[in-house]
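dumping this here before i forget
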Amino acid sequence: MKLKKLVYFTAILWFMTPSLYIFAEHLKTPPSLTLLDEKMSEMIVKANKGDVTAQAHLASLYNIDGTQHNLIEAARWYTKAAEQGDASSQYWLAQFYSSGLGGLPRDKNRSFEWMEKAAKAGNGDAQYAMAGHYKENGSSKSPLEMEWLLSAAKNGNGQAQFDLGTSYELGNGLEKNSAEALYWLFTASQNNVCAANMHLGDMYFKGDGVRQDYLLAAQYYQDCPDLIKEASSWRENMAYLYEKGLGVAKDPAKAQELRN
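structure:
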């Protein structure tokens, strides 16, 4: 069974579900400066003077779990940096408005406006979210979805790269193209999208659009042992390689273990 793209990860979170970040509305004031290290103090000074890089960095520090975690402060600094054109802050501000975090109202219209600004400014995660927004029902891909998906992939979003790769591999919404599939799946693999390795393993195992190569197939499958457990087709392929000694040392015991 082919692994389909699970979800338009950030896009689905943006439009359909609450944020995964912990609500911290009880934190009404930022941490005392006496508790901050020197670099943090310097960053606050720069941010208050309008340094957009410091504002964006400060927002990120407040947005992650840790001693500085404070979503109200994160929202405040994301807003300041976003208004100065910082694309990453625009993306996160869209997320905050989508879920009503950091004291901001839940506002889908504002969320969309900031997400679109971030996408147009070249933020790959925002572009991927926009692709999810324009995704149509069924397997076909709308022109706007493809436009944003391709932009996101080119700007380094691993999930977008994976989506393009599997779409080209399976002919899902796009005309099947093994060369494009190989390129985007390999790019996603280099971007630490483990599922891309499994699809690359399939291509080399079957010789689908590439020269059949059991050694490469085994290497790609073995890169993601946890995913092997999730799909019977991948387990069976790897078991076959162990059983026949193709690309790996012959090991009937491991083959049987995978099939159990």
